[in-house]
Amino acid sequence: MTMKKILIISGKEMRQFFDSLIAYILLTGFLGFSGFFTWLYGGDVFLVGQASLQTFFAIAFWTLFFFIPALTMRMIAEERRSGTIETLMTKPVTAWQVVLGKFLATLLLVMIALMLTLPYYFTISGIGKIDHGAVISGYLGLVLMSAVYISIGLFASSISGNQIVGFLLALLISLFFHILFDLLSSAFSGALAEIFYYLSMSSHFESISRGVIDSKDLLYFLILTFLGLVLTHHRLTRSQAV
After folding, report:
1. Contact indicator for 73, 199 with CB cutoff of 8 Å
2. Whole-angstrom Cα distance, residue 189 to residue 209?
3. Which of 7, 154, 166, 238 is least enclosed by beta carbons within 10 angstroms?
């Protein structure tokens, strides 16, 4: 019964994505950016001279970083502004069901975008020998990274009543994990450098995208995703109690 309510909320969010054209804009933009930079500009796979999707994974690593906050910015902030979140919370659903339903809908949309890039894989595998394991783990890395940024985006949206503020706040928080912790790990040494390196998203994503699936990397993504969802849940329940 609990899962059914989560799926109902998720389905509602998916319909809103497509009704408001957000889904079409994301899918078109993601495929356009990733296709252009993978096949035509800079990282042209034909110039690289090997059958690999590493160029695509590197481009998607940045593209999703910007696109996901655009998806999550309205999910709670807009509902709070319009008052629909209060209406939703008066129905027989829990705060966790609302959070997980919105999380699942966004993750599904990102996964649809990634599935639409599978022709890249089939094309490259047709022109050379490709490491299938690295491709699978690369897509897994993108899904795990997306899950983290979705949870951060939902939290940012939950503490703001304005979509733009939610978007910028999600970008700011995500920026630390995406690049700043990596830069800080280079600026320090010893235990502090190791801590910053572990907090860096790129270090874990690059490891998985190369085909190395380590429990410490999986734990990193799962902990950050869970933390983001817990903070979002806490914010929702707190706002309802006020």
Report:
1. no
2. 26
3. 238
